[in-house]
Amino acid sequence: MAETHADEPTRRDFLYVATGSLAAVGAAAAIWPLIDQMNPDASVLALASAEFDIGAIPVGQEITVKWRGKPIFIRHRSEEEIAEAESVDVSSLPDPQPDDARVIAGPGGELEKQWLVVVGICTHLGCVPLSYRGEYDGYFCPCHGSVYDTSGRIRKGPAPLNLEVPPYEFVSDTRIKIG
Amino acid sequence: MKKTMKTISRAVSLAAVAAVGFTLLAGAPAQAAVGEVEPIDLQWSFEGVFGTYDRDALRRGYKVYKEVCSVCHSMQYVRFRNLAQPGGPEFSEGQVKTLAAEITVEDGPNSDGEMFERPGEPKDAFPSPYPNPEAAAAALGAVAPDLSLMTKARPGGADYVYSLLVGYEEAPEDFNLTTGSYNKYFPGHMIAMPQPLSDGQVDYEDGTPNTVEQMAKDVTHFMMWTAEPKLEQRHRMGFQVLIYLVALGGILYFAMRKVWAGAH
Amino acid sequence: MSGESTYTPGNGFSRWLDDRLPVMRLVNDSFVDYPTPRNLNYWWTFGGILTFCLAVQIVTGIVLAMHYIPTTELAFASVEHIMRDVNYGWLLRYVHANGASMFFIAVYIHMFRGLYYGSYKAPREVLWILGVLIYLLMMATAFFGYVLPWGQMSFWGATVITNLFGAIPFVGEALRTWLWGGFAVGDPTLNRFFSLHYLFPFLIAGVVILHVWALHVSGQGNPAGIEVKDPKKDTVPFTPYATIKDAFGLVIFAILFAYFVFYNPNGLGEPDNYIEANPLSTPAHIVPEWYLLPFYAILRAVPDKLGGVVLMFGAIAILFVLPWLDTSKVRSARFRPLYKQFFWIFAAACIGLGYCGGQQPDKILIHVGDGGFDVTDLSRILTVYYFAHFLILFPVLGLIEKPKPLPESIAASVLPGTRQEKATS
Known about the structure:
The complex is a heterotrimer.
Chain A: H1 9-36, H2 42-46, E1 50-53, E2 61-67, E3 70-76, H3 79-86, E4 115-119, E5 130-131, E6 137-140, E7 147-149, E8 154-156, E9 168-172, E10 175-178
Antiparallel strand pairs in A: 1-10, 2-3, 3-4, 5-6, 6-7, 7-8, 9-10
Chain B: H1 2-27, H2 55-67, H3 93-101, E1 104-107, E2 116-119, H4 133-140, H5 157-166, E3 181-182, E4 190-191, H6 212-227, H7 231-261
Antiparallel strand pairs in B: 1-2, 3-4
Helix pairs in contact in B: 2-6, 5-6
Chain C: H1 12-20, H2 23-32, E1 35-37, H3 46-65, H4 75-84, H5 89-117, H6 125-147, H7 152-164, H8 172-180, H9 187-218, H10 231-234, E2 235-237, H11 238-263, H12 293-301, H13 305-320, H14 322-325, H15 337-358, E3 364-368, E4 371-374, H16 375-400, H17 410-414
Antiparallel strand pairs in C: 1-2, 3-4
């Protein structure tokens, strides 16, 4: 247990610090694979896009499809529902967004207002809202009472945001591709 | 210090001897059985510390697999999307979609509760020619093994698979061939699979001569990739890890000398 | 050596903690100020290396269990999913699979070091027995783990090993069915093996704690095989002296580890295990993993089923009583000229048994006429030597051997000026 302070403490300390740092860098690098393995893997990412046939949905009805393990509501809106959604004063909404910004253009380039596609997950704490319920004819979440309108926008209750519109596009007049 | 050096070199050499010994022990059964012929030892681009796959060979090999092997054999662990991933044949996303769309896949059930057919997508596995091993055996007389892992599932690996593909010949006169074909490299020489390749069988678009040897080489290259799709990443990371460990070992050695200098 | 604690809390908080839970004192006394014989060589770094191996196996194993599916339908496919799709899955699986082999390489070196330097002798008998227990648990864990990928070797290895229990008189049949949870290795077997494979490493960790505790009670042995006389001269503090030497040894070991993981990941495995398990067809040549080959050779050397099983387990059980079989007063083989030679013969016999375990039993090694000397003959000779080494040589050598003079002290055996015994080692 010899005491060897003295001659060149700086050079010795540098050696120890460098050794320790190099070891720490290696340990940190070794941890990354252990963390990254919990991220979505290649097979999960590959399932990310899916096509759905919407031609058979009558006006005024809605289907629920599964995408990335989540429910997607595809609603064929009636004229009244569209009018109801457009008649609201946007600035009065908790999450202001005009109805036009929540629908997309079809193959012809015109807005397909009759098609509303939203992720069926309440923006409050992740429950699935009930369709055609609540005072705004849109959605009602049974968990904590959030109410959405015919555009899937939040109108009342604890949810902070409108129902999310997933990335999608029209492949043809009757087919959409989500993801 | 000389003593330390000597101890280290002795420890290292002993470790090396041990490693070789263990490899021998583990590898020993590989070259057992009587009547086996050593496979042809080829030089492959994927061998060695910096080994990588040859993209062109992989693409040609895929064509051979698709047009010849896949008629009887499945390759259930490989998906069309794999063809686009780095370290593989690296087809473009568009090419992969086109290739996948050539097949029909049963999917479902749909909202009516019925199964339906749709064109293949990149997420789908390579199609199996038979729904189950029993059906394959009934149609072919023997189960055609799945090819996904073939080069890792046979002693001799890629060399053996290549040798088998080019190893068909006339049975020697004194050999009693009761069934199947004679293959020089197959254990026991009697193989159920008829000679799969013949000269000129697959059209190569890149002008490579389509001899049996070349096609066997390409399809074996392809099957090495299907068995070990992360080989390029593994080789690259391995080199980085070894460089790091040697550097850390070096600096630790000097730090250790400094520390122990205080003990004498 | 478990003398007075040298820990002095540096600040208010550590004093407060020390009064309530003296964990820092425990760490300090066990791994910092702990007096370590100053003459330890690199063979003594394998304790640390083994701790590293256990940690690597537990960490990568927990992570792999997040993706693995223990059903006969999906086990093989889920392993391929890990290899192909999971981020860094190929790395984690290759580290785990080769990690098992590296663990056994290290444990064999550790055990042979113990045999060479007489580390099992009084007062370290309990330390040694705990070590043998860890080794047994390791073999069980490795066996369970090897079944999980559900390849051909997994299935047939599991079938053969569980059938060994069928050899036990009266209860064998019932015991085997109980192990399987059915009438052959199947879904219930795979599921329980997965559960036990997850449990056993934590049992190992528990016994490791006892092993280190026992070590710190008796103090470490050392190459000279003599006890510490003057702690001031004969020992150095564990940190930094032993810590940095262990770290250096570990990095050298890691290079070998990395070679296998990155450049020869299947070199220690069997090609047959890349074929999915098929209960209708046994591979032509079935062998266990390399680290179990010597015991497999002993099993096959005996023409009687029960006898083979008894000898195989006896080969491990005999290690438990080794401290009482060795009659020598001297620990280290450095000062035991006769034992030293038999040690190397024993090591060669073990490697020879390993070789035999990997070969076809009827493979002829030396041709004589129509027949000759085959693998079974060789394994019989080596099996006899294995048991004779413990049951005859250990008791007899200690009585007839004339040991060389021991060095005066540990310090005298390593410090310059007193090198006389060096020439003998």
